[in-house]
Specification:
alpha/beta; Aminopeptidase; Alpha-Beta Plaits; 6-stranded mixed β-sheet; 12 helices; 14 strands; 42% helix; binds zinc ion; dipeptidase activity; Peptidase_M20; Peptidase M20 domain-containing protein 2; para-aminobenzoyl-glutamate hydrolase activity; Peptidase_M20/M20A_hydrolases
Length: 394
């Protein structure tokens, strides 16, 4: 039997409509990373109408980020929900970030309603985190300190299963230029240095290295420039690798060995390299205490929760938030669909997708309530976070 505040949250979300309307509007108007001006505008308008104070932008690099805050003005913890709202090229909301946005906004308003009606001290924010698909918006926000003021961070992501935790890896993009020397491939090959041979050597060497890298390593690459003409020795080639591992610490050891292998491979044919890296996406350190509360809250409103998936998967910029404060990123089922497909995009705008918006908002707001209303609960989440970070950095 849920306590009165949780009943108030559930009733509030059952009786108010902006959350699914907001989600459908974002779904119908997909915007790419860092171009999500309409989505950010619609979310902030909706929360402003609910009495939230809005700050736009947050950092110079993230013009489509925002913070919407409501505070009781009487102290207490500060809980933050996160909203993503960027889409994918060609397939629109194929990752269903419109569901995240609707659920996050609904959760913020519902938790505010619970705090207000019970006179409980505390603050609640929704931070709009742009460019998850391309650009690492949360990494930029975390590095700028935009999450330092909060006590716990929560968001949901749509999926093919409702689950509280899914295995996740740190990753970094590696961009390599190979410099050789051009020459006629038939009449003067001895005067050239073949940059493509350096690329091919690198792929072979990295493959040979794979069994000896960290057991959580996943290294995958493509050739992005392989030469201009088959009768010219390529003087300049490019490749791009994505390196993943179970933690940023493991990733760093892999990165050094792969970089070394690429440099040696290029040197072996007389070529040289220029290597650049993208932003480092940290692994998600899902807070078990908060994840369990979220699962319990969903079950209490008759939403079935599947087993966690522990096998290591992809990456998300929410990992960088999870190294700043206790964080969860559970999943809500929208259908038997795979992310980044047109089928997933259709499900994200379907009645099942809209049900996920409301279920997600309820689960998030109820878990936010658990953390804000019980100092012991929040303390347990904080202690778990501190222990996980101490272990990672040891
Ligand atoms: Zn995605
Ligand atoms: Zn996504």
């Amino acid at each position: 039997m849920p306590e009165a505040a949780k009943t108030a949250i559930v009733d509030f979300l059952a009786e108010t409509t902006p959350w699914t309307e907001l989600s459908l509007k974002i779904h119908a108007n997909p915007e790419l990373s860092f171009q999500e001006h309409q989505a950010a505008g619609w979310i902030t308008e909706t929360l402003s109408a609910q009495g939230f104070e809005i700050t736009q932008g947050l950092t110079p690099e993230t013009p489509t980020a925002f913070k919407a805050t409501w505070s009781s003005g009487t102290g207490g913890p500060h809980i933050v929900f996160m909203a993503e709202y960027d889409a994918l090229p060609k397939i629109g909301h194929g990752c269903g970030h419109n569901v995240i946005a609707g659920a996050g906004a609904g959760a913020a308003a519902a938790l505010k309603h619970a705090l207000e009606t019970t006179g409980t001290p505390g603050s609640v924010s929704l931070v709009g985190t742009p460019a998850e698909e391309e650009g690492g918006g949360k990494i930029l926000l975390a590095e700028a300190g935009a999450f330092d003021e909060f006590d716990a961070a929560l968001m949901i992501h749509p999926a093919d299963k409702t689950m509280t935790v899914r295995g996740n890896r740190a990753c970094v993009d590696m961009f390599i230029q190979f410099h050789g020397k051009g020459a006629h491939a038939a009449s003067r090959p001895h005067e050239g240095i073949n940059a493509l041979d350096a690329v091919i050597n690198s792929f072979v060497t990295i493959r040979q290295l794979m069994p000896y890298l960290h057991r959580s390593a996943n290294v995958h690459g493509i050739i992005t420039k392989g030469g201009e003409a088959n009768n010219v020795i390529p003087d300049h080639c490019e490749a791009n690798f994505l390196l993943r591992a179970e933690s940023v610490e493991a990733l760093e050891s892999i990165r050094q060995r792969v970089e070394n292998a690429v440099e040696r491979s290029a040197e072996s044919v007389g070529a040289s390299t220029t290597i650049e890296y993208g932003l480092t996406y940290a692994e998600l350190k899902a807070n078990r205490k908060m994840a369990d509360l979220f699962g319990d809250n969903l079950r209490s409103i008759d939403v079935p929760v599947a087993e966690d998936v522990t096998e290591l998967g992809g990456s998300s910029d929410v990992g960088n938030i999870s190294r700043v404060l206790p964080t969860i990123h559970p999943y809500i089922k929208i259908g038997d669909v795979i992310a980044h497909t047109t089928d997933f995009a259709a499900a994200a705008g379907s009645p099942a997708g809209m049900e996920a918006v409301i279920q997600g908002a309820k689960g998030l707001a109820m878990t936010g309530w658990d953390l804000i209303s019980s100092p012991e609960t929040l303390q347990q989440a904080e202690e778990e976070f501190a222990a996980a970070m101490a272990e990672a950095e040891a």
